[in-house]
Amino acid sequence: MTMKLSPKVAEILRKSQDFEELDQEEIVFLLRLDLCSAETYAVMHAANALSRATFGTKGERHLHIGLNVEPCRFDCLFCSLTRTAGIFTEAVEFSIEQVLEWARNGQSKGADGMNIMTTGFYPFEKLLDMGRLLRREVRVPLVANTRDISHKEGEALLEAGFVGCYHAIRLGEGRDTPFSPEKRRQTIQVFKDVGLLWMNCIEPVGPEHSHEEIAGLMLLARRMGATYSGVMRRINFPGSPMEQHGMITEREMARMVAVSRLVMGNVPRAHCTHEPHTASLMAGANLFFPEVGSSPRDLQADSAKGRGSDLDACAAILREMNLDPLLPSNCFTAAPHAFSDKPAGCGGQVAE
Ligand code: SF4
What we know:
The protein is of the alpha/beta class. It has one domain (20-320): Aldolase class I (TIM Barrel, Alpha-Beta Barrel), CATH 3.20.20. The protein is built from 10 helices and 11 strands. Strands 1, 4, 5, 6, 7, 8, 9, 10 and 11 form a 9-stranded parallel sheet that branches. The protein has a two-stranded antiparallel ribbon with strand order 2-3. Strand 8 (228-233), helix 9 and strand 9 (273-274) form a beta-alpha-beta unit. The longest helix is centred in the first third of the chain and has 18 residues, at 38-55. 49% of the residues are buried. Iron/sulfur cluster (SF4) binds at residues 72, 74-76, 79, 81-82, 119-120, 177, 296. It comes from Desulfonatronum thiosulfatophilum. InterPro entries: Aldolase_TIM (IPR013785), rSAM_sf (IPR058240).
């Protein structure tokens, strides 16, 4: 059986193979492709080949450590840690001993990075203290996931030992959250100005989000040079105000992961997806987030006891898809370890 692609898809794939920037209309066109069509599989194949060429067979695991739980008064509609969700009625801060145990365990199991997350009102000074402590105790690169910051605060994060920040302009930012998308974009510029790596994801995707909004955020990730920028779907916790919209499936997420990979071209060092699953690993993703501590998707204060996947489980999924979690990370080095300018094979090996 031969598969004939539409000329438009063939031209977009040619552009992406040459790392050319796709335009907004082309991205929306790809996001709208029939999930069962040959074109969607061709996009996923092209995205996978692009990742194999640029990341080799590296499978990344960046351990999310949520430092605290609080009934957060910012009340972002998709988050389980809000005052209005009513799941967490008291502030809980995990002890330093507990965070150190998670971090040391993460290092021993080969975590490539550690994303240190705080809720909206967590004191910034305490995050800096935690960075200083972790920098002394573990060698794994530290990434902060916190509120909007100034240049001075960005420099303080660097001084405390963080090498990057995870910070997304979320889908529905300013509608489903009280935050200004422009202010969040300015914070990303702060990272760039002070020399922090910027980590991103198109998130939290739900069925109600327009393709245009998604495409716009994908282009922003490319243009502002995200270290990684894949796709995370929204998880509706029981009683979530977003339950009415439903959730996208992992398969739909895989199509979106593939499109975002083509958009990112030769900019990123990895391509993330959340929560961990196989489908997106066939569509260009190679980075998972194992989770401990607080998570905005969970009903448990410690996500390791709830929805979170651990490092071993993430490694097992990566290996099942012929990716190697123990190769060195591509995210924190001057040049990617695995870079190859050859067109890639589709599976566990780069084509020779
Ligand atoms: S996403 Fe962050 S700022 Fe928003 S409610 Fe949750 S913890 Fe607070």
